[in-house]
Specification:
By secondary structure, the chain is an alpha+beta fold. Helix content is 30%, strand content 18%. It contains 15 helices and 15 strands. A hairpin with a 5-residue loop joins strand 1 and strand 2.
Length: 456
């Protein structure tokens, strides 16, 4: 399909300053470089944002033959197989791009009427939002949000003096497309299949359910700095209006060195101070998302996003049995430096992970389980309090009615996996390629070990 690769058309002097510079990306797109001027007429984006964007624009384009990112077409693959292929790739630490799975007209413009018509985000309702402002970020990157009415944000799209975004509009009615909805093992198995065994009796944080759907709205020229998403969740995003350049990073080597992987994430989070190290130790690919495209990234995937035109996207977070080794490593990083790595704080992980553990004795044989992934899940369940994110609430790791049963199941599984006092679970997990999911587990043997947990 023909499209205009010059994404600056119609922006200059209207949504961005008329004097805004331009940059060309490897895939042929031309975009503006952000410009917000202070009272001294200095572009506050010049020191951090623009150098990062210049680096991102030089990164290679992700193509269907990439060995590190899986590209799928929703038109060519049956729904059940699409879900299985996506899950298999994600468990191997490969982001998944699916083209043509959306349903909205590409010609739609981002307006209050559009949000009202398609997403029940009413412009007449007083809707308070957490808004991130580029000018505020340039002054203090730890204090970038303020409370504002969404309608005001939409009106300021046409204000060349502002670049803003809204990170997480709650959109609980949104979920993965039907063909992918069962990728969410936390909801499909952890919550849906454990209510008989462990009825809910304690106060449950609403994020266990609300994080499965949210929306993002950005002005033209907004750069989301390199980061990974909180609490070891997988993240999916679908472009509805506009364009985004998602850049995913990976270490060149030393995947078996957790300290190096920690440094990798920390240094990317402070790009301008570590450019030489990043160029020497990191590879990256650019994924251009257009309306109707979906990107799913595995837990802990460090990524940056540049939004060259006013854009609206939907998305959400979820958990997957095949990715638990990546979830564990991501949550480990949250403990060490969560306040400078993630773009938001979540409080739902432990309760969902414990219910996923409780579901395993009755889990369908269709769901493959892998040694390192299952080992990681057991560790997170048993040592739940040790994974409280830096700056996180104690209530996020509190024991509930799921603690005793999930821990008993986890201990039985660890024994089956060969864990002893001398050969501890962390010793096994921290050895070897930290991105590897391990060998697939023979379910008939595991099920025999867990028979006592299936009695009615």
């Amino acid at each position: 399909m023909n499209r205009n690769f010059d994404l600056t058309v119609g922006l200059l002097g209207k949504e961005v300053p008329k004097s805004s510079s331009k940059i060309k990306w490897k895939d042929g797109h031309t975009t503006i470089l952000p410009a917000v001027y202070d009272k001294h007429s200095i572009n506050v984006c010049a020191v951090v944002d623009i150098p990062i964007i210049q680096y991102l624009a030089q990164c290679p384009v992700s193509t269907p033959d990439s060995p590190y990112i899986t590209h799928l077409s929703a038109h060519d693959i049956p729904a059940l197989k699409l879900c299985d292929l996506a899950g298999d790739s994600l468990s191997q630490n490969k982001p998944v791009v699916i083209r043509g799975i959306g349903h909205h007209n590409r010609k739609e413009e981002l307006t209050a009427e559009y949000l009202d018509n398609y997403y029940a985000i009413s412009p007449k309702r007083v809707r308070l939002i957490k808004l991130s402002d580029v000018m505020a970020r340039s002054i203090d990157h730890t204090k970038v949000t303020k409370v504002e009415v969404l309608e005001s944000f939409l009106e300021s799209i046409n204000n060349p003096k502002k670049i803003q975004c809204v990170l997480d509009i709650p959109l609980a009615q949104t979920s993965l497309p039907d063909s992918l909805i069962n990728l969410d093992h936390g909801i499909a198995h952890g919550w849906s299949e454990t209510m008989y065994d462990v009825p809910i009796s304690s106060n449950i944080h609403p994020e266990n359910f609300t994080v499965k759907g949210w929306a993002l709205v950005h002005h033209a020229g907004y750069l989301t700095y390199p980061h990974h998403d909180a609490e070891g969740s997988l993240t999916w995003v679908r472009m509805e209006v506009g364009v985004k350049f998602w850049v995913v990073f990976r270490p060149k080597d030393r995947q078996n060195d957790r300290k190096h992987l920690q440094d990798f994430a920390l240094k990317l989070g402070n790009f301008t101070e570590n450019q030489a190290w990043i160029r020497a130790n990191c590879d990256a690919e650019v994924i251009t998302l257009l309306p109707g495209d979906i990107l799913i990234i595995p837990p802990g995937q460090v990524h940056a996003v540049y939004t060259p035109v006013a854009s609206f996207a939907t998305g959400g977070h979820f958990y997957h049995y095949g990715c638990m080794h990546l979830t564990e490593m991501s949550r480990y990083l949250d403990v060490v430096a969560g306040d400078c790595l993630t773009n938001q704080n979540l409080h739902n992980a432990l309760e969902t992970l414990r219910r996923m553990m409780i579901a395993i004795p009755r889990l369908s044989l269709r769901i493959p389980l892998f040694e390192r992934s299952l080992l990681a899940l057991c560790i997170m369940v048993i040592q739940g309090k040790e994974y409280r994110a830096k700056g996180g609430l104690m209530s996020a790791v509190a024991d509930t009615e799921t603690a005793p049963g999930s821990i008993d199941i986890a201990r039985a599984i660890l024994t089956h996996l060969g864990v002893t006092k001398r050969k501890t679970a962390p010793m096994l997990l921290y050895k070897g390629d930290q991105f590897a999911r391990g060998e697939q587990i023979t379910r008939t043997e595991l099920d025999k070990v867990l028979t006592t947990f299936t009695s009615l």
